[in-house]
Design goal:
With about 300 residues, this protein is an alpha/beta fold. About 45% of the residues lie in helices and about 10% in strands. The chain has helices at about 30-40, 60-75, 90-105, 120-135, 145-150, 155-160, 175-185, 200-205, 215-230, 235-250, 255-265, 280-295, and strands spanning about 15, 45-50, 80-85, 110, 140-145, 165-170, 190, 210.
Length: about 300
């Protein structure tokens, strides 16, 4: 049974976009995935996003994606939202992934803007609507033009919000002005998809985060959110500023790379990366240690 949700927070408030642990020889590590998911929920996450960018979705097979959803649901599905990435730049393939995720027990879907093809806004509208029509699961849009090549325009977001199963947006657009208008006019639950902008997005109406640094600092993210909700904006700002070295350090290079390195430093399941991603150099690892220590992370 899915955890409790509300229209305002359909997937909870603090979610981590989880890495996909692999074994030393590069195979899917389902035991490690279950251990990591449980650790993240114990640390204060309301939800886990699997098969997203941070989960190396471009290099995992459809079978592996289904196995991962099923394993994580089994491990934490009774106490956290499990949201499955199902978006690709092929609508038919996305529908297959969405249905497979639903069969595997996911509580919701994350649908990224189709990348590389650069479809027009009408193409985006039809793509996301088809995904929402394909299952009975609630859908979180994922707007990240830096990776996809095209933004979801505010007008398109408002149109998509009319669909009863499109309930949220993960915002990695980096534009607080556009976010303000889209939040005000769409009514969607808004989640920050850019850790450096977690607090600024809360200030214009976001309800929570889909975080990468949540692997390391979920309790601090929860405290930041709770402080903001309670009206203690000074405390929220203090936490935000304390975490600046973590936000910076975890994105000095591709976030999956640094996250897996940080998890390994903490003795948590992560494993190797799949090409074309490559491990940090020794010098980069030392810099990551300094960044995390400056933000109060114990290694």
């Amino acid at each position: 049974m899915a955890p409790t949700s509300t229209p305002q927070t359909p997937f909870g408030r603090v979610l981590t976009a989880m890495v996909t642990p692999f074994t030393a020889d590069g195979d899917l590590d389902l035991d490690g995935a279950q251990q990591l998911a449980a650790h993240l929920v114990d640390a204060g996450n309301d939800g886990i996003v699997v098969n997203g960018t941070t989960g190396e979705s471009p290099t995992t097979s459809d079978v592996e994606k289904t196995q991962l959803v099923r394993a994580v649901v089994e491990a934490v599905g009774g106490r956290a939202h499990v949201v499955a990435g199902a978006g690709t730049n092929d609508t038919r393939h996305s529908l297959e992934l969405a249905r497979a995720a639903e069969r595997a027990g996911a509580h919701g879907l994350l649908a990224v803007t189709p990348y590389y093809s650069k479809p027009p806004q009408e193409g985006l509208y039809r793509h996301f609507t088809a995904i929402a029509d394909a299952t009975g699961l609630p859908v979180m849009l994922y707007d990240i033009p830096g990776r996809s090549g095209v933004p979801i325009n505010t007008e398109t977001i408002v149109r998509l919000a009319e669909h009863p199963r499109i309930v949220a947006n993960k915002d990695a657009k980096g534009d607080l002005g556009r976010a303000s208008w889209a939040i005000a006019t769409s009514g969607l639950a808004w989640y920050s998809g850019d850790d450096m902008l977690n607090l600024p997005l809360l200030s214009v109406g976001a309800v929570g985060f889909v975080s990468v640094v949540g692997h390391m600092v979920a309790p601090e993210l929860r405290a930041l959110l709770d402080s903001h909700i309670s009206g203690d904006v000074t405390k929220a700002m203090e936490i935000h500023q304390k975490l600046l070295p973590v936000f910076t350090g975890m994105f000095r290079t591709q976030g999956v790379i640094t996250t897996k390195a940080a998890l390994a430093l903490q003795g948590l399941p992560a494993g190797p990366l799949r090409m074309p991603l490559v491990e940090l150099t020794p010098e980069e690892t030392e810099q990551l240690k300094r960044d995390l220590a400056a933000g109060g992370v114990q290694l």
